[in-house]
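ESCALATION

Customer reports they have been waiting on this structure for their group meeting. Please prioritize. Original submission:
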Amino acid sequence: MLREGDQLPDFSGLNHLGEQVSHENYVGKKLIVFFYPRANTPGCTAEACNLRDNYAKLKAQGYELLGVSADNMKKQASFSVKYSFPYPLLADENLITIKAFGVWGPKKFQGKEYEGIIRTTFVIDESGIIVRVINKVKTKDHAAQILEG
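Update from on-call: job pushed to the front of the queue and completed.
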């Protein structure tokens, strides 16, 4: 997993609208990249909606937002429309961006082990350096957690 002080990795993929998104879209900008396991699940919905509800505060601090999961573009689009997200969702079905950030790994749920996305948020400064990694995400209060840092 990437750590504080690491450079934003090169990444690209299609967002929920079918538009190409890459690291180059965020050159010179502060960026929050949040990785979530699956669209329309309770924790992921709480996290994404909390960021939506606090989007103006995050933008006022100069941040761009990008949500990433392994869901396909259709599922990401449905998730975005259903909850009116003002930020893009990357459909990383091939796990390229997910693995570039190092957030794919072993997980446990109800006693079963499997590989999946480790819910993590990266805060990146204007020069493309990761300044904060949040791996104990408070899904219902994530924006405050980001802004307190």
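Sent to customer with the following note: The mean pLDDT is 97.
Escalation resolved.
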